[in-house]
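Box S2. Input/output pair 1.
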Amino acid sequence: MSTTTKVSTTPAAAQPATRWSRLRQIPLPAVAIVALLLLAVGAPFQLAPFHTFQLAMAMIYAVTLLGLNLLVGHTGQISLGHGAFFAVGAYTAAIAMKHAELPYLVTIPIAAAVTFVLGYALGVPALRLRGLYLALVTLAIAIFLVPLLKRFDGLTGGSMGLTVTKPVPPEWTGLAEDQWLYFLALVTTVASFVLVAGMLRSRVGRALHAVRDNEIAAEVLGVRLAHYKTLAFAWGALLAGVAGAVYTWVIAFVSPDSFAVTLSITLLAGLVVGGLGTTWGPLLGGLFVMFVPSLAQDLNQAAPGVIFGLLIIAVMYLAPRGLAGLATQAAHWLGHRLRKGNNHAH
């Protein structure tokens, strides 16, 4: 009785190629997300404290822009007053920490609840307004917020603002203060992006996109316009309020002049430059809002606003769909090259 042994005819050199082919089949967005998270986790251990602070601020602005993108990019409702919700969240956290002496982590749900209610309340009258009229109403909110904050000295600190104590890192973490604040901002940013991504993939996201694309057709299909418009305002305001609370932790100081109307305009410009209605647009816009004004200040201290405006024009000329659109084109080109190389390997 003979035993037949089956011998593999596959060359040993082909096995590594097969593994590499499987690696190249992993979707590029998943690879980008994992690589970005790894870089984000390792960044505070490699950077100076000031640069760690800058990245934390960029993530805070990214969460704010995530809420603005939900309203403007995914629902089609213009807003020039998003900085007001950011300010309300910051002051809510500061008042809770300063006067009520509440733990800093408790200020997140409080700021979220307050700004959600305010956003919903603004969304109700906004139902009758569109385009420039809606933009003017939201701009008016950002304008009168600053003198309103200065009026209540006992609560808001008036023109002098409020100073709070920065969160102290737990001893078991072994982290410095700037690193701990950075990771608080990072966790908030990741959680916010995951929440919004899940929302946009659900029935709510489809309804918001239907409202943005064609309100009449959406209403014919059974979408409740009033409900989803007010919901977009409320969720957008909530995210801005959460970002404002984390801003208070990182800065440990709030004042009315920090939330002037120029903040709302800069946020909208940052979102458009980052990529309106895109996944990565708020993150790229947060980096833009944080670093470009300081870059403009370094280039020309006499007229940083002019340099800032010229940089915006240059970015929009070179990338009409924003930086996220430019990154998407680069990713498609890279994916095409990888698939082409994979086909040649076979």
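Box S3. Input/output pair 2.
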Amino acid sequence: MTTNKTNTDLPSLLLVHGAWHRSGCWDRLRSVLDTAGWITHVVDLPSAGDETAGIHEDARAVRRALDAIEGPVVVIAHSYGGVPVSQAIAEATGVTHVVYLAAYQLDIGESLLAYHGGSVPDEPRGFQPLLGEPTTTLYGDLPRAVAEAAAEELVSQSVKSFCEPLTRAGWHTIPSTYVICEEDRALLPQFQEDMSRRAGAVLRLPSHHSPFLSMPEECADLLTEIARRATA
């Protein structure tokens, strides 16, 4: 990957992880981005590990991360991370673009569980079980040993985060791009196609659910091209 701009010309990138993950999942992608001169930031969402935290606690964590970044920011949300990001950016300043990377681009009043037709409990408690075997559902295009190592880093995810509806959706006013992962076995492509209709642009990667691990160079190229266009 190449860049023809200096660091001061580039927006910062805030990478927001999905359910069951922590910010370390971005390390491989960040290494590629950092080498190319991009300034990257990450955030740990409270709902990954804390059963009392939901989308509003996560959105506040995203807001705090955004408030600490100077200059323009492109936010990149993966999977569940799209939910608190949509909430957070509605009140943030400096965000020039949001990228939904195989992510939930939900609207006001929607929750992750309800989007899939699930029954939402009145008082959600506890942790949400993983969907299937993570080495295949989340990391099916990684070498087996690498997938197993990634799966060992997963943490518990609160049920509450899957049940709470959005009260704001910043993508209505902030330009957005949806990146469909065409071989995804976790968030199936038909759901991504549906949500991508809400985005201003749609791009694709021939990957499973976690291209930041399985194809970091290609993922970085795509994301930084979006970021360049967002600040051109």
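Caption for Box S3: The CA atoms of residues 1 and 231 lie 18 Å apart. Residues 216-231 form the longest helix (16 residues).
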